[in-house]
Amino acid sequence: MGIVAGLDSSSDSTRIVVCDAETGAVLRQGYAPHPIEPAEGGGRPADVDPQAWLRSLGEAAGGGLLENVQAIGVSAQRNALVPLDGNGGLVRPAVTGADRRAQTSAADLMDAFGGREAWARAVGLVPQAAQPVTKLRWLRRTEPENADRTAFLMQAHDWLVWQLLGRPARRTTDRGGASGTGYWSAATGTWRPDLVELALGHRAGLPEVLAPWEAAGTTPEGLLISAGTGETMAAAFGLGVGIGDAVVSLGVSGSVMAVHPEAVGDGGGAVTSLADATGMHLPAVSTSNAVRALRATAAMLDLEGPEALSELALKSTPGAHGLVLLPYLEGERTPNLPNAAGTLSGLRTESMRPEHLARAAFEGMLCSLADALDLLRGRGVEVRRVFLLGQAAELPAVRAIAPALFGAQVVVPQPADYAALGAARQAAWALGVARGALDPQRPPAWQGAMGQVLEPGDDLPVGQAVRHQYATVREQTHPGAFTS
């Protein structure tokens, strides 16, 4: 059917994969870092000139990488707000998803619209600092002149698609990216311009939301550009997840998402109702503490990071001799305990050993994420298989403990640029539909992610006992924390 490319513009680099449109086989790849200075004191800057994304894209595509490519899909970092003026110029640098300056504005917005339940009913999420709707409120409060000049709202992948097409009058996005803004409802599939006005002080233009298989346009050279999507949605599409699959990401914080045919309602806002890149939904639950808890425990035991902690943990036994760690070290999002601290329970003479504390750290982190999985299951989301992502997924202790605690088959995929692969698969879909070779309701049947498969097996009852031990301590320490 041809050759397609997928590019993923993440927070720090651009990765491009060029694939056979029919099979998904990777033919060649490109990479370039973003030419962005780190923030003062290190880390990612809150404000970024989007031109840096274009320069990185050009470098990654150098050397004829895109020769003979017929369609391109774009994945990009989620929640980066790109405010434009009436002429399509940048009002200010993009505000990235990593920015936390808007946390006060999140609380302000929540109160202005009637609280958590009102937001959850309206758009399927509760405002947090990362979301574009909250950044709009922050812009209004701290840069009122820029807020007044803002006439149109885009995110990173919207802006890149628009640039690749030569900045046409038509500006587009996809439902996946739109669903994380805080002013689009995955349940109704419609924008909420009233919430833009609530946050920004006036209404602003919003992109046309394309169906997953639709093309955003064609360049003058005849290169088809698909709708594009957020990095999370592209990665799920690249992995090939479907109904019954969940993805657990082990970063400093944690996240759980699963594929579901309908938007998942949650009055308390614990479940964020996202849309995916295929026409389905990706209900998601986030935790504030994941690998953060492992690193802190390793430091406490004077170990060189999570790898050494993993080795030590495997010298203990399930349940860590009764030692339980509630890993709420930086407060917690799920359950909603923003002012909580971590709790270490079950201290007895026999449990006060380094290996048991190491084991308790892994069990606490994974039980917290298993709680998040159960929130989805409790709302009708089927979870039979869990894809485990992040560097911590490679740790032997995680692989040994996770299947029994999650109560499901666990797949640890081989390393790959899954977001770029998802963008390429989207491009192949749009190209096939445009040529009449593919059904709009059926994406190209590329092979899903390969990896190590781990089964709970005979350890399932032991895992459930560990879950019960953890839940007992959690409920004693924070009664009713998971009451809807």
UniProtKB/TrEMBL annotation:
Q: Which Pfam families match?
A: FGGY_C (PF02782), FGGY_N (PF00370)
| Residue ranges annotated for the Carbohydrate kinase FGGY C-terminal domain, each copy included | 247-431
Q: Which GO terms describe its molecular function?
A: kinase activity
- Segments forming domain Carbohydrate kinase FGGY N-terminal: 4-229
Question: The organism sits in which domain of life?
Answer: Bacteria
The cross-references to SUPFAM superfamilies, in alphabetical order and at most eight, read: Actin-like ATPase domain (SSF53067)
Per its UniProt record, what PANTHER family does this chain match?
Answer: SUGAR KINASE, XYLULOSE KINASE
Can you tell me which family this protein belongs to? Belongs to the FGGY kinase family.
Protein's name in the database? FGGY family carbohydrate kinase
The source organism is Streptomyces fragilis
